[in-house]
């Protein structure tokens, strides 16, 4: 999964000239709907900034910036939102893939700093944002067979990739009576992923937007096929071994595991909130300013229960003694 998504030359995310998250690509994200999503995020970050004293320096760090559209939507909106906030804000994108780094630098120019590793950022105060990043972290697959758990593996018969299982059984602490043939995903390496991110700020907010569920729901015995799936040309493909490097691989996020990893790193987990409810809170003042019909249409798509509103969740963490500045926690 890691090779198919992140190989520096042939990985799915390593070819910035190929559209993926768009109407012309393989799938849609909230960013694809239009700039309103980024504008409402900017309002959320502005509220956090003002609630914590409106400091002269504020860093927005984005990971998984893809084509830079979210960065541009946020940066374009800041001067109209609050000139002082725009002046205080420094936008940084952390991108490990060299070709995508070059692409982002060319598109954003001096408006953002592009770095390859989170450890290259040191900021006293700010916010980190990651839209649909957690779901793209490589995960192991586990198969229940003969009342034992085994890790699924990938083999090659000289012509095509095929499934295999590792010989040694493993001990998983999942509760439930799982039948033979049951498949589920394990956790990604959250400590290695979140650890460097947690060191970026002395005090800060971490905003992850993704689809997922708690651990009990994710590993429920009725969910016998797991959540790993593929997207290509806006079609969900049931065969992860097809089209290696040419289709998206994704799985539902285990928010329980994210909470546990965050706690181990000294971060504070706040209530995981459905996108519809979260954005309605962000949009209260914005709606009073008579947005255009097109903007209202975007907003409705983002919060509609049958579209993005109930499918995606905002998972926020904080570090240090800060005012979280969001209702409902």
Annotation field: number of helices = 12
CATH topology: Rossmann fold
Give the low-pLDDT segments: none
- Kindly report how far apart the N and C termini lie: 35 Å
The SS-based structural class is alpha/beta
Shape: globular
Strand content: 15-25%
Calculate the mean pLDDT score and round it.
92
Sheet with most strands: 8 strands, mixed
Helix share, percent: 25-40%
- How many domain modules? 1
The ordered H/E elements are HHHEHHEHEEEEEEHEEHEEEEHEEHHHE
Number of strands: 17
Class, according to the CATH hierarchy? Answer: Alpha Beta
CATH architecture, by name, is: 3-Layer(aba) Sandwich
Radius of gyration equals 20 Å
Can you characterise this structure?
The protein is of the alpha/beta class and 329 residues long. It has one domain (2-138, 189-219, 248-319): Rossmann fold (3-Layer(aba) Sandwich). Helix content is 31%, strand content 25%. It contains 12 helices and 17 strands. It has helices spanning 2-6, 30-33, 36-51, 69-81, 83-88, 98-108, 190-198, 215-218, 255-264, 275-282, 284-287, 293-303, and strands at 58-63, 89-94, 113-115, 123-131, 141-145, 148-156, 161-165, 183-185, 201-210, 212-213, 229-232, 235-237, 248-250, 253-254, 268-269, 273-274, 313-319. The strands form 4 sheets. Strands 1, 2, 3, 4, 9, 15, 16 and 17 form an 8-stranded mixed β-sheet that branches. A hairpin with a 2-residue loop joins strand 11 (229-232) and strand 12. Helix 3 (36-51) packs across helix 4. The longest helix is centred in the first third of the chain and has 16 residues, at 36-51. It is globular, with a radius of gyration of 20 Å. It starts with a helix and ends in a 10-residue tail after the last strand. The mean pLDDT is 92.
